[in-house]
Amino acid sequence: MMTEASAWTVRCGKYGERDQWALVNGLVGGGWHEVPDLTGIETREQMEAVVQSTYGLDKPATVSNYTGQLWALRSRIVVGDLMVTPLKSTSQIAIGVVTGGYEYLANEPDITKRHVLRVDWKRVDTPRTSIKQDLLNTLGSALTVFRSSRSDAAWRLHHVLETGIDKGSRASTALSPVASDDENLQDISNIDLEEYGLNRIQALIQENFANHDLARLVEAILECEGFVCERKPPGPDGGVDILAGKGPLGLESPRLVVQVKSELSKVGDPVVQTLQGAMNRFGADQALLVAWGGVNNGASKQLEMNKFTIRVWTGSDLIRSLLKNYDALPEEIRSELPLKQVWVPVEVSP
């Protein structure tokens, strides 16, 4: 296992607008479209001068922030380093290995896709549920470019790359001090509070709605959406945890069969096939597969062929539906998931 290389996070747009472009083309980066080609920059001082001339900033902290990120992209991230990109478009995490240093794609017509690094993406669908909370927090900076150094991140992310599992910090490093790293800048002002909040909600669901109890939460959300539900008791279920339908008696279309898989591992195509059989057995119009840990490639292919009859909710999809319906949920559910919406100012990075 490689353990000597650093682990870096580079985001592909505040809203994930460059996520798929990066994965398809073996790249990471973009943004900073006002900044010129950085190929000729050889020192951090030169980079600071570029930041000043480009943005005309009068806040030393912001100048240092932008300079640190661009200097990391230009010079500190090297071939062999681990690259981690939280995907806003899928709410999963992509992990790869850097294969080429900084490039400026001058002929790229989209000016937001010019400052890049080459990456061999090894895993592009790692569910957030497979990564422990402290490591998710480390990846939760609002910065565009930063080194993931806390919580024994590099060693753990290499293990996730190889096995898909986060083993947690090694005992010898769990309590060791964090080395100074001005590019990391992991103070409270640079935490992505939205992402941090979503990660905490995820952890709370895992704690309070484990195993079959997750079906209870799904049932409550579906009832908020206007379905009349019948939740099956724990035990062998033949592919059905919830039966749901519209109308006063739950007999009107769309009639759903719902399978809820609470495990952190990805579910495979046998689960999809079982769900198809349950649709026929119960005369359902559609099916919902709630896969807390996501689905593997085989299941994804099956779902693509049945996209008009079977819908999948990953952990992130379930959380979005939860937040959408939170105010209408029963008091019992809200007491187990106490949430409050807050508004905070943010500083937008390029």
Keywords, please?
elongated; five-stranded mixed β-sheet; 21% strand; 12 helices; alpha/beta; 350 residues; six-stranded mixed β-sheet
Q: Approximately how much beta-strand content do the residues carry? A: 15-25%
How many H/I helical runs?
A: 12
Helix content: 25-40%
**Mean pLDDT value:** 87
What is the string of helix and strand elements? EHEHHEEEHEHHHHEEEHEHEHH
State the major sheet. 6 strands, mixed
Instruction: Report, as a whole number of angstroms, the end-to-end distance.
Output: 35 Å
Q: What this model shows, in words?
A:
By secondary structure, the chain is of the alpha/beta class. The chain contains 12 helices and 11 strands. It has helices at 19-25, 44-55, 60-76, 133-138, 153-163, 171-174, 193-208, 213-224, 269-282, 297-305, 315-325, 331-336; strands at 7-10, 27-29, 82-87, 92-104, 115-127, 145-147, 228-231, 242-246, 252-261, 286-291, 310-314. The strands form 2 sheets. Strands 2-5-4-3-1-6 form a 6-stranded mixed β-sheet. Helix 10 (297-305) links the parallel strand 10 (286-291) and strand 11 (310-314). Helix 2 packs across helix 3 (60-76) and helix 9 runs parallel beside helix 10 (297-305). The chain is elongated, with a radius of gyration of 23 Å. Mean pLDDT is 87; it is low at 172-188.
Quick synopsis:
The chain has twelve helices and eleven strands.
What's the layout of helices and strands?
Elements: E1 7-10, H1 19-25, E2 27-29, H2 44-55, H3 60-76, E3 82-87, E4 92-104, E5 115-127, H4 133-138, E6 145-147, H5 153-163, H6 171-174, H7 193-208, H8 213-224, E7 228-231, E8 242-246, E9 252-261, H9 269-282, E10 286-291, H10 297-305, E11 310-314, H11 315-325, H12 331-336
Parallel strand pairs: 1-3, 9-10, 10-11
Antiparallel strand pairs: 1-6, 2-5, 3-4, 4-5, 7-8, 8-9
